Amino acid sequence: MNRIDRLTAILTHLQSKRTIRASELAARFEVSLRTIYRDVRSLEESGVPIIGEAGQGYSLVEGYRLPPIMFSREEALSMLVAEKLVEKSLGEESSKHFKEALIKIKAVLKTSEKDLLVEVQDTIKVLKSNPSQMMNKSSKAFQTILEAISEKKVLSTAYMTFDPELRSERELESIGMFQSYDQWYLMAFCRLRNDYRTFRLDRFSHLRLTEISYSTTKHPSLQSYLDKISGERKLHQIVLEVPDGSMKYLVNSKYNNGFVSEKKVGELTEMTFMNSSIEGFVRWIITLGDMVVVKRPAVLQNRLAELIEEIKERQG
């Protein structure tokens, strides 16, 4: 960050808080305290009314306001993602206040950024959100994919499939992203398979934006694609009983397996899942050993019994 950008950012920080310490600014911009002191002095000399209180920090004179802040394309897109997540993660009242605040922020965007948000807002969906989970390593791919969607540029990728684990090189025409529980997915037209595919963001080992453009008019919308796959995939309702002492082992992994709800039944917790793959689910359950009991469906109970017998035979 050059000095002009840093001075502007310091002004933004001063307006965002009542007071801010020089040490906070130094840590934020990864510069020395001496550099921050010089920057503040430069701002004062340019006419910005900054108050410095010993032991307290810096603040702007009450009533002083900066001109409208200019956001970059990346920052504008990040606001859109935050809006989608908050809508699912917060209660109705808090979500309402957040949206109202965001409208005020959007009001200072440049026309090009406003147009960009309108254009890409339907390419990002949050289906099921788990507020306790932070975005994992998929965040490394997130910004590159947002850029590909907004600029309609082909992505050159390296992707690791789940079963079997194979690495393949793919060129993708991005249609949109969606989140389900704690995983983000990309829906794209795969030029290798000549068909539409869904990719988990954390399974990309390489992502590069190419200069090859494509038209979205020939592709379905993200929502229509989601409606299509949800209709094609038969979802199984799965109910497990878990002793209280074993719940801690399912806290993180349950969201990767279609967790829907849970309720207390005496000293047990009854957990409900919706999952399209009996085979994938039973192989997760078997890693939990004696910590869970499958209540239904019967097809899962039977497959679990079969798998246990197969393991016994293989072990001799």
From TrEMBL:
Residues 3-58 form the HTH deoR-type domain. The keyword DNA-binding applies. Keywords: DNA-binding, Transcription, Transcription regulation. The keyword Metal-binding does not apply. GO terms for molecular function: DNA binding; DNA-binding transcription factor activity. InterPro entries: CBASS_pafABC_assoc_protein, DeoR_HTH, HTH_11, PafC-like, WH-like_DNA-bd_sf, WH_DNA-bd_sf, WYL_dom. PANTHER family: PROTEIN PAFB, PTHR34580. This is Predicted DNA-binding transcriptional regulator YafY, contains an HTH and WYL domains. It comes from Algoriphagus locisalis.
